[in-house]
Amino acid sequence: MMFSREIGQQERERLLLAPYAMHSADSAGRVHQESAHLYRNAYQRDRDRIVHSSAFRRLAHKTQVFLGTMGDYHRSRLTHTLEVTSIARTIGRTLQLNEDLIEPLALMHDIGHPPFGHAGEDVLNECLSEHGGFNHNAQALRIVELLEHRYPNFPGLNLTREVLSGQRMRSNKKSRSEDRGQESPLLEVQVVDAADSIAYDAHDPDDAIEMGLLTLGELADSQLWRDATKATQQRYTALDQHETRRAVVHAVIDRLAGDLLTATQERIGKLQPGSTTEVQSQTDLLVAGSTELVEQQRELESLLFERVYRHPEVLQQRKRATETLQHRFEELTRGHILLPENYLALVPNEGLPRVVADFLASMTDRSALDGREYGDRENYVTVATIGLEK
């Protein structure tokens, strides 16, 4: 029965997926070998392992852009992740890619974020400036390869090599953009990156308007939002302010996703790749929007940076968050407060600063702000009591 079901999954992929998609039958497997599951393919198992991880659950209380203290409408890191996954699956299905692979890639893509979003990431990067720095994409790999403890036979989640490789390419994205001679990612990985951009270009302005940091009129300085607003007003004649905003958000997503699909299908049509190997041999990404829409996204992101991400209220919250995290790091590395034993066990191999960053990065905004994770628990000991050096 197991054999027939496995063949059934492979046959389904053969019928539905393009030859340039990543088929589960061609997976390079896992670092720690495991037998096949009765009714889930390898990428479906990856999805479930990520969703059931403690790091994934904590995303519900981690900052996307705005801290939870600023309201309860705006996106958390978890809701952003789910929105990226939804957009990515839609794009992937249209391109006949492997949605089962896209899903774990998308669900994992932000799992390494510390509390307070990019502000927290900047603090930990500064704290680890002499220890290799901190990057949320690289931290995601540490979580799924080392820090999560859910199985008795191996550390981490033992995800497939395709998911790990996709995340590794995300962590190396800056260097890739500077040297396009490197191997391109699988199309499924490219789709998740594109969906991430679409999600925050639509939803960060929506959150900012709801919080009173920006108006729909101010967003008219962006060509992308101006065109989406005009299209919405032509389609609907009697919407109130809130209905208009929601309709414009939908229009922005549709415009970006539609343009991405059109431009990507055109590139794929010209290349006619017959395998993932041909995709990865390309020097330029195949999944990308048109030049016009990419420029409009850049224009919007510049506007958001100046008027939202640098808004005085946001900067005030960021300052409070960064000071808190900096203080926590100093306390822990000096051995003045408690640290869980499972983290201390990593210190001999990883070094105390890195392990402290691992611990702090695992925290939610709330626990980092009020120190509730520092309670007097039986499985916590002070760094000082076991003689570990900074």
UniProtKB/TrEMBL annotation:
Protein name as it appears in the record: Deoxyguanosinetriphosphate triphosphohydrolase-like protein
Similarity section: Belongs to the dGTPase family. Type 2 subfamily.
A GO molecular-function annotation: dGTPase activity
Pfam families in the record: HD (PF01966), HD_assoc (PF13286)
SMART domains in alphabetical order: HDc (SM00471)
Region of interest (Disordered), ranges: 165-184
Domain (HD): residue spans on this chain: 77-201
InterPro entries recorded: dGTPase, dGTPase-like, dNTPase_2, HD/PDEase_dom, HD_domain, PHydrolase_assoc_dom
Residues annotated as transmembrane: none
This protein's encoding gene: dgt
PROSITE patterns: HD
Keyword list, A-Z: Hydrolase
GO biological process, one term: dGTP catabolic process
